[in-house]
Amino acid sequence: MAKINQDGKAGSSELEKSKAHIIVEIIEYMANSVVIKTIIKKSTGNISVMSFDSGEGLTEKTSPFDTFVQIIEGKAEIVIDRQTTLLESGQGIIIPAHASNLIKPNGRFKMISTIIKSGYE
Fold it and tell me: Half-sphere exposure (CA, 13 Å, Cβ side) for 74?
């Protein structure tokens, strides 16, 4: 699996501000890859959009912060502390801080990941 970051315009890693964006269209699928594009990144958290080719997922991990995941195209299995939830386009789930989690594909899919860091200083 390749993990690819896509940079924004003008040397910035964020999307252009004060401009409307169709989020599902700002990232494309790449064969055998997970593609990540930063929407906004701050010291208190970040928002990224990700695309996963069929068969590609993220390995099991834990984070010290709450993470909100929303599927914006396709379907994926989100496993939190060994409990599996199937999410479809438009659905989201909060992964609690310190919970083991894993993202498994159910075909190609795209998602938004929002990590909130404030309150954990």
Answer: 19
Domains and CATH numbers, the chain: 2-116 (2.60.120.10)
DSSP classification of residue 97: T
The DSSP letter of residue 25 is G
Taking the mean position of all CA atoms in its chain, how far away is CA 79? 14
SS3 24: helix
pLDDT in tens, 12-54: 457 788 888 888 989 999 999 999 999 999 999 999 999 999 9
In this structure, what token pair is assigned to residue 51?
Answer: 């695309």
Torsion sign over Cα 99, 63, 102, 96: positive
Which tokens go with 53? 């080719």
Percent of the chain with pLDDT over 70: 87
Phi first, then psi: give them for residue 25, nearest 5 degrees.
-95, -5
